Amino acid sequence: MRALRGIVVVVPSIITIRQYITDVPAYSPEQGTVEEFVSLFRVVPVNAEIAKAGGLCKSKFGKSHGVGLADAILAATVEAENAELKTLNTKHYPMLKGLTPAYRK
């Protein structure tokens, strides 16, 4: 687990899945760089608690807000870890009250 200025960074396991859903070949230098970067941090597995919360979140916000399963699982992981999500795509996370963009463009 890596701390950046006192901040602990965790990576939801759904992110490690997403890194392979790409046009970049699995054994390319680019993919190796991503794997190396992710390996610097603690990867949080999807357990029963996160799966349940993610499923409920998808049920509640899927149709009304277009929330996909991956985003619902990511949000559930954030809540289970009592973490902050850093993203520019705030519209995908209506369940995370008070979420603001990580930075302004």
How would you characterize this protein structure?
The chain is mostly helical and 105 residues long. It has one domain: 5'-nuclease (Rossmann fold), CATH 3.40.50. Helix content is 44%, strand content 10%. The protein contains four helices and four strands, in the order βββααβαα. The chain has helices spanning 13-18, 29-38, 48-65, 69-80, and strands at 3-4, 7-8, 10-12, 42-44. A two-stranded antiparallel ribbon has the order 1-2. Strand 1 (3-4) and strand 2 form a beta hairpin. Helix 3 packs across helix 4 (69-80). The chain is globular, with a radius of gyration of 14 Å. The termini are far apart. The mean pLDDT is 85.
Question: Could you give a short description of this structure?
Answer:
This protein is mainly alpha-helical and 105 residues long. The protein contains four helices and four strands, in the order E-E-E-H-H-E-H-H.
Blueprint (SSEs and pairs):
Elements (H helix, E strand, L loop, with lengths): L2 E2 L2 E2 L1 E3 H6 L10 H10 L3 E3 L3 H18 L3 H12 L25
Parallel strand pairs: 3-4
Antiparallel strand pairs: 1-2
Helix pairs in contact: 3-4
Number of helices: 4
Quaternary organisation of the protein chains: single chain
Q: Please state the average pLDDT score.
A: 85
Number of strands: 4
Q: For the CA atoms, what is the radius of gyration?
A: 14 Å
Class of secondary structure makeup? mainly alpha
What's the order of the H and E elements? Answer: EEEHHEHH
Low-confidence blocks of residues: none
Largest sheet: 2 strands, antiparallel
For the record, the count of structural domains works out to 1
* CATH architectural group: 3-Layer(aba) Sandwich
State the CATH topology: Rossmann fold
CATH homologous superfamily designation: 5'-nuclease
Helical content stands at: 40-55%
First-last Cα distance: 29 Å
Strand content: 5-15%
Strand line-up across the major sheet = 1-2
Shape: globular
CATH class: Alpha Beta
